[in-house]
Amino acid sequence: MARSANDSTALQTLHYIAPACVLVYFCAARAIATCCGYLVNSRFLKIIVDGRLVLHKPSKSAGGATRRYTAIALLAGICATLVGQAITYLARSLAEPGTWAPQDAVVYLMVSVFAYGSLVIGVAETSSPLWHPYLGACLLGAAFETPIAVLDLLLHNTKNDFVFSRLALQLCRTALLVAFCLIGSWHARQDRLTQCDQGDEAAPLLSNGAPNGAPTAAKSYGAFPGTDEEYDDGSSDIGSDAGDPDETKDLKKKQLKRVEEKGSWIGYVKEFKIFIPMLWPTKNRFVQGCLAVIGLVLFAERFLNVLVPRQLGIITEKLTENTGVFPVREVAIWGILSYLSSRAGLSVVQNLAELPVQQFAYKSIGAESFAHIMGLSMDFHNDKSSGELIRAVDQGQNLQGLLEFALFQVAPMFIDLGIAFVYVYILFDIYMSCILAFVGVAYIWVGAKTTAWSVRRRRRFNTAWRNESKVQNEAINNWQTVSHFNRGTYECDRYVKSIDEFNAAEMSYFMAYFIGGGAQSLIMVLGRLAASFLAIYRVSQGTVPLGNFITLTAYWRSIESPLAQVSWSIRRVTQMLTDSERLLQLFQTKATVHDIPDAKDISIKSGEVAFENVDFAYDVRKSTLKSVSFTAKPGQTVALVGETGGGKSTILKLLYRYYDVAGGSIKIDQQDIREVTLDSLRNSFGMVPQDPALFNVSIMENVRYARLDATDEEVKDACRAAAIHDKIDTFPDGYKSTVGERGVKLSGGELQRVAIARAILRQPKIVLLDEATSMIDAETEATIQQAFRRLTAGRTTFIIAHRLSTIQHADLILVINDGEVIERGTHEELFRLNGKYVALWSKQLSKDVKTVGTTLHVDEQDPAQLEIDTTAGST
Ligand SMILES: Nc1ncnc2c1ncn2[C@@H]1O[C@H](COP(=O)(O)OP(=O)(O)OP(=O)(O)O)[C@@H](O)[C@H]1O
């Protein structure tokens, strides 16, 4: 195959660069299209120009069957010409022994098959391709093929059938490329005309009718409402969650909101940077030291990966010399290198150093998420599902390995691949490197595809997993309710159903996982066989020594493992990010009630509490409190009465700052509670709630929870004051008795008295009693009233009570109805008013008449003269 020197060099150069350019262009253009496609399909991307979305999107005709099949046929034709050309070289080698295809031509054919093969697969696997990467790649291809064909023609002075066939194929390929470009350009023009006709080239992608493309409703987000098509990037797997439960939709909504704020998926990924301080030990010298040790070990391992198989090759070479001498030095070096690279060598050091790094991340993620959850406001805690929350934190902790993984696994494996590519070239030739590159790219490509395929399944799997945990948790936590309604079987069925859903999701996910893994292993085996065949052939021809074959065989393991890791790591990183989306969402949920910057501690001197025109609503659609104003003077007792659902507890919640007022203000000693620290504010209160909950620890510890430094004696005094001490003494374990989860081992009355003891022990500045004695009988209540008098003496106190007898001595009684204070005054004043308060009394007493024989004599003319006789002595 004689060639004139200059033309020959030009042809060689073209052979090397042409397919590489096509491949690089296609990959780059497609990567950009993938990003955009991902965002479009995920309804995430928002490129705002003049307030409108004007992102390029596939035209409506982009996915037309004729267009796609034509493109596939043309591209497949191009591949066929390449294969045909390879066959002509092979046939010639067989027909004319000793005639070999030039190396540049082989590389050209191999890389070209790979490049155009990728184009075929790209069109075939996508229902609605973005055409410009294909068109650009073919334009480039045509631009290179023409001079290649001309040079090839000029350079061949021996014209025979083989050369003619090859040149015919070359021309045919050029023609196919030109045809692809012409047809593609015509389609592109048609697309533009259609889009202009429809005026949608610059139409907002968020076509929800909102002015300037502004989203109006969650359902309207996105460029292609209602489509479940897979776009060029195959990203519907990643972005779509059709059929997932509400919480995933909620997650998507929040993701959408976040991405809208950030402007792109890069912004979305960037959000994960909030985890970096939890993963990177900026202040922990010991962990930093461990990271350095891991780095050194990894550096050494890169060398060992090459040195061990190389040493084996050296030993083989020594042996083939047949000198009859045992190669002691070579074998000793090999032994030491093998030991260092084995699991017993540097790996042990690495594993030991990894443990503190992992524990650091585990601790910081765990502690941060726990503190964050505990710091979130009541609205979050009212809505949360504990089981799901715990699972989200568990799954989020997967991130602990992310940094280590990226630095110490992903980075070295790319280095390993680069080294391998060069090393096999040195050992053999460029063909071996091409085999390696082909195996590598195919392996990673299949890995990436199966990952994309399995991401949606993974999300379903996660959702099903969390759901199973939620169902189980709810049933166990509500065991009493379940038993009251005898719904044991129902709950078991519900749980079994959730396990079935989990199993189905798991099966679907792992099937994708295993099938992908199987396909990758097949590629690896075929690659190993191809490399071995080539190596054996070269050794048999005597072009390379036997030692090189042995080195390659031993080295292949070091090639396989980074390849497996690249693909696995794509899956792993995706999985880590998917798993931790919930935790990220959690971290992004900010407490609605928080300290303002420079908030100061509250200073309570007298304890005056003033509500000034307070408005509040849990839901903007329904007002809960309307213009509530009153002042509790220092040391006064203010009672809140009224029909259920009127807003009494809400007033206390606002005072506690579980929520912020929507209008007006709440002041304690002239300090707006929004301007002081939450910590100091809540430290000032002692609360006895409607339904006190206890920890499943001893009574002693439960009461002491109110003041952690209280002595045993102080705890007992508080219990005496709350009239529960004698009762506790009757328990077999006394104060050491555990109370069961949430205090279920205590009766309602006992539970309330423990809660009262807690409030007494706390010695708060302001006392809040929310139905504190609703479950206590009248006799015990009389004892407790004395304790209350001691507790509330000199302290501003708020009492909510349905049993009106308990609040008749209050300094101020507020009658709350439908979120408003409709009456206010003392017991006597309100009786004189003869309004709602009296009506409440009447209602209650007529109930008591039936239950405890209380009689009521109401003077119709003057209700303030109401006389109440009660055998129970409640008034
Ligand atoms: N977290 C919440 N989210 C939404 N609405 C709520 C929430 N908590 C209470 N509400 C509603 O606010 C209104 C006032 O509730 P609140 O608990 O303050 O009433 P209340 O007067 O204390 O009732 P009760 O005497 O029965 O305890 C009710 O209609 C209730 O349904």
Task: Explain briefly what this protein structure is.
Residues 609-843 form the ABC transporter domain. Residues 229-252 are annotated as: Disordered. This protein has 875 residues and is α/β, with parallel strands linked by helices.
CATH topology of one domain: ABC transporter transmembrane region fold
Query: Quaternary status of these chains?
Result: single chain
Bound molecules: adenosine-5'-triphosphate
Structural class: alpha/beta
> Strands of the largest sheet, in order across it?
8-9-10-5-11-12
Average the pLDDT over all residues and give the rounded result.
77
CATH superfamily of one domain: ABC transporter type 1, transmembrane domain
Radius of gyration: 39 Å
What's the N-to-C terminus distance?
119 Å
Indicate the proportion of strand residues.
5-15%
Number of strands: 14
- What about the largest sheet? 6 strands, mixed
**What is the level-2 CATH architecture name of one domain?**
Up-down Bundle
Helix content: 55-70%
Could you characterize the architecture of this molecule?
Keywords: ATP-binding, Membrane, Nucleotide-binding, Transmembrane, Transmembrane helix, Transport. It is found in: Membrane. Residues 229-252 are annotated as: Disordered. This protein is of the alpha/beta class and 875 residues long. Among the domains are: 5-220, no CATH class; 254-588, Up-down Bundle (ABC transporter transmembrane region fold), CATH 1.20.1560. 63% of the residues lie in helices and 7% in strands. It has 28 helices and 14 strands. The strands form four sheets. The protein has a six-stranded mixed sheet with strand order 8-9-10-5-11-12, sandwiched between helices. It is elongated, with a radius of gyration of 39 Å. The structure holds adenosine-5'-triphosphate. Adenosine-5'-triphosphate binds next to α20. Adenosine-5'-triphosphate is lined by residues 382, 618, 624, 644-650.
